[in-house]
Amino acid sequence: MSDEQSEMNGRVIELEEQVVELQTRVLFQEDSLQSLDDVIAKQQRQLDDLTRYCQLLKASMEGMRGDSADGGEVAVDLPPHY
Q1: Residues with Cβ < 8 Å from 35, sequence gap 6 or more?
Q2: Which parts of the chain are coiled coil (predicted)?
Q3: What pLDDT, on the 0 to 100 scale, is given for residue 3?
């Protein structure tokens, strides 16, 4: 084998190693992106749940205000020993 062929083979091997390194990096990044996507989806579901819960609390509070006889104040019943 000539020096030129040895040099060419050495360069090919170097390029193959670089390709493998790049493929490894891409796979790691894809895995990281999937993990981040899963976290974002979970957080969005939590935000949606909390938004619905806040809306229910708001409606409940408005209902309590509407039920009170003194125009918006929530009636407080004193315990019998007072």
Answers
A1: none
A2: 5-53
A3: 86
Residue 34, number of CB atoms within 10 A of its CB = 10
pLDDT digits (tens, 9 = 90+) for 29-80: 999 999 999 999 999 999 999 999 999 999 999 988 877 655 555 566 778 8
The amino acid that residue 22 corresponds to is L
- Say what the pLDDT of residue 58 is: 94
Locate 23 and state its tokens. Answer: 């493929």
The backbone torsions φ and ψ at residue 81, rounded to the nearest 5 degrees and listed phi first, read: -80, 0
Q: What whole-number distance in Å separates Cα of residue 77 and Cα of residue 60?
A: 19
Q: For residue 42, report the phi and psi dihedrals to the nearest 5 degrees.
A: -65, -45
With b for 16 or more beta-carbon neighbours within 10 A and e for fewer, the 35-69 pattern comes to: eeeeeeeeeeeeeeeeeeeeeeeeeeeeeeeeeee
